[in-house]
Amino acid sequence: xxxxxxxxxxxxxxxxxxxxxxxxxxxxxxxxxxxxxxxxxxxxxxxxxxxxxxxxxxxxxxxxxxxxxxxxxxxxxxxxxxxxxxxxxxxxxxxxxxxxxxxx
Length: 104
Prior knowledge:
By secondary structure, the protein is mainly α. It has one domain (2-103). Helix content is 73%, strand content 0%. Helix 1 crosses helix 2. The relative contact order is 0.07.
């Protein structure tokens, strides 16, 4: 049962594009139990970890793009970092609903 829940959570995190949460939810939960944190405390720690990584990636992209603008480097090696792999993005766009379709 626990393995099924963990697999479901990981799949949901992947759909929501929250890779840090998928990787850390279990260890953060164990730490929350040890520290007797509330559900809100657990969620705060988990979301904080996700945001920390996203901020680091955003900062890295900005620095590297500035280096390109200043002609210090030719291309951004972090260009592939992001929310989607190209094939996933194409699939998502092809299967996403238009705003009018959601209401119908």
